[in-house]
Amino acid sequence: MTTKKRIGLALSGGGARGIAHIGVLQALEEEGIFPEVISGASAGSIVGALYAAGKRPDEIMEFVRKASFFKLFKVSIPYSGLTKLTYLRDKLAESIPENSFEALEKKLFVAISNLNTGECEMRSSGPLFDIVTASSSIPLIFQPVEIDGQLYVDGGLLDNMPVGPIKPLCDLTIGVNVMPHVAVPSKAVQNVIGIAQRCFDLSVLANTRPNVELCDLLIEPKDVHGFNIFQLNRYEPLFDIGYKAAMEQMGVLKGLIR
């Protein structure tokens, strides 16, 4: 369908669950809906950057297929013992011609959390690859990324679905949240890893809730909760979940566009 309305798309973080964003993009494009302004945190910033660079959903899926899980989590030598996201930065550099927001085909905002100031920053300029890598640096797993002498981690820590920066620029704002609020069984929070992941999830849920109110439409593929944030090898079912969730909302979306 053709529309004169300027559409914005906010893509949440969620680790591997962010692959569902690609399914959402596929559904939108099949219906002739092409968002012009994109924002993202963490996994949403990766998908958002690739889409803003002009990559089609099938090309973004190919990026995911070719990415090596083992190289992504290759632990580096420095004293921190945390994993470095150099591999992600290198893969972005292979796929996006210029290390610049200004060279992108669509306007992009990326949320990053500044460890020094404790503030969330919305970047739309600067070194694209470093900023997306910083936004994807999950605390206590990946090393913080240094940019201009400051240390940055996962944007989702402070703003997991950054609707704010795109709202004033768009006629219609769509939020895609792949970190839905669901209850979990007791067995899921009986070890250190399970408790840590649940605590991080609850923190993210708290900062997402105010942004939901800013969306004209929220796409929330709840079935992603059956996948943990590191299941990068489950890309096909995650894509399908995102696609289905978007198609279920398509009637409502078209009504808003008209």
Question: What this model shows, in words?
Answer:
It is a single chain. The protein starts with 6 loop residues before the first strand and ends with a helix. Helix content is 37%, strand content 15%. It has a single domain, classed as Cytosolic phospholipase A2 catalytic domain. Strands 1, 2, 3, 4, 5, 6, 7 and 8 form an eight-stranded mixed sheet that branches. The protein contains nine helices and eight strands. It is α/β, with parallel strands linked by helices and 258 residues long. Helix 1 (20-30) links the parallel strand 1 (7-11) and strand 2 (37-41). Helix 1 packs antiparallel against helix 3 (57-66), helix 2 packs antiparallel against helix 6 and helix 5 packs across helix 6.
Structure keywords:
single chain, 258 residues, alpha/beta, Cytosolic phospholipase A2 catalytic domain, 15% strand
CATH topology, anyone?
Answer: Cytosolic phospholipase A2 catalytic domain
Q: How is the biggest beta sheet arranged?
A: 8 strands, mixed
Shape: globular
What structural class do you assign from the helix and strand content? alpha/beta
Uncertain regions: pLDDT < 50 for 5+ in a row? 75-79
Total helices: the number is 9
N-to-C series of helices and strands = EHEHHHHEEHEEEHEHH
CATH superfamily caption: Cytosolic phospholipase A2 catalytic domain
- Span between N and C termini? 10 Å
Q: How does CATH name the architecture?
A: 3-Layer(aba) Sandwich
Number of strands: 8
State the share of residues found in helices, binned by percent.
25-40%
Gyration radius over CA: 17 Å
Strand content: 5-15%
- How many domain regions? 1
For the record, the CATH class is: Alpha Beta
Provide the residue-averaged pLDDT. Answer: 90
